[in-house]
Structure formats: structure tokens, C-alpha cells
Amino acid sequence: MSESRLERQQILDMAASYRPACLLGAAAELDVFTRIGGRSVSADGLAGELEADPRALAILLDALAALGLLEKAEGRYTVPAELRPLLAAGTPETVLPMVLHSMNVLRGWAQLAWVVKAGFPAPRTASIRGPQADRDAAEAILEHKEILGSYHHSIFYIQEYVEKHGRDIRSFVVGDHCICAIYRESPHWITNTARGGKASNCPVTEALHDISVRAAKAVGGGVVAIDIFETPEGFSVNEVNYTMEVRNSIDTTGVDIPAKVVDYVLGVARG
User: Cβ distance 131 to 138 under 8 Å?
Assistant: First the structure.
């Protein structure tokens, strides 16, 4: 029995499959469907409302009509009546939040080759909607999970975003001592050295030692790593990690972290 093989056109169709998603996403980000509503509009008239280029918008509207998302007659465009509840913002049936979320995801997927080569997340590409895009995406995810029904999808843990200006601190606590610390820097909000963050030595000041040891004791002490933000109000603890990665910290700090851990463990075993 011969195996089925992809044919040339199927491969080309795969490469072009992004087009409908991008057309729908562009319309959602420009708020095309909500602006049209129940009206019949011209490309020039809608371009004025959206502050868009008339020719480029006309091309987008024609493509949306070809997909069946709009209807075109005598140079004017309408949203099909049966699609208005799905494509207009603020209706119970609207799919726009998930479409907008998908566009945020698509911008990341488009940089997959960059990520594979670099080994860490690519710099974010901003939406034309600005910071509101992130809020809309978050709300879309929450709404989608609530619709799934099970209470497992309705329990959310939300963490406050703290601006860290491109870096944070990873301190290492063994017993009652903060033995060393590193700065972790990255243009992305993820600063893990395993995800592309760059490590440099961070002096252990009295304040850093104090908050690190207190954070460790709050979870029972022992051998832990503390992730710390520098804020205008001082140090702020983000995480306490009981399985710490030290590969990029030994040479950076000049401290033999594994040896310190072994000495601590032997001391505990001896009582």
C-alpha cells in the first residue's frame, strides 16, 4: 500500500493559508465590521471614518467580500445580516475578542524562524491598537474559558505587572546566607538565562541579603533562589524557586554554588 504524498499545490496552499486569517484580523483591528454595522458604506466614506488609505481599504473590503464576510453591491459594502451579531463588538455572540487574540498570537508565530535560531522569544510586534490590544487579548481569553463551562476554566490567578526596565535579580540563598546574586538582562520581559537572558554579577548588598534571606525563610528556608525586581519603592520579591539553575551563575559570580550547597546539606545531615 503506497503512502499518500503531498502534492505541489497542497504545499503552496499551506504557504498561502495565512491570508484569510490576516484579512479577518486586519478588519477586526481596524474595527471595520462594527463601524459598518447595519449601514451600506463606500470605501472612501469608511476610509474617512477610520483615517485609513482609501485605495488600501478598498482592496481589503473587496477581499473580505470575496471571503463572504462582507457583501458588495454598486460600490458599497454591507455586513451580511446573519453575521452582524458575530462580527460586531459588544454583542453576546461576538467572536471579535478571539479574532483579536488570534492576531496577537499570529504576530508571534510569524517570527518562529527567528525564535528557533535565537532560542528565546522574539521581540513583540505591536498592534495598531496599542496597549489596548493586550487588555483585549486577556479579556478574550478569560471570556473564552468561562464559556467552556467547567469550574476548572473559571478560576484565574492574575499577577500584577511590575516594570523591571529590562532586568531583574536572581539571588541564591543557602541556609541563612545569600551567597551571591546575578543580574538577568533581556529586551524581552522573560529574563531567564535559559531563555536568552544575559547574566552579570550583582553585588550582594545588605538590603539584598536581608530580603533574600527573609523570602527564603518565609517558605521554610534551605536552598532556594529568589527572583527580585528593583522598584522605586525598593526590592520586590517575584518568585522563590526551590529548584534553582546555577549553570550561568558560577563563573559570573565567582562563587562555587554547588560546593556551598553540598556543605549545607552535609551540615544538616550531621545535625
Answer: no
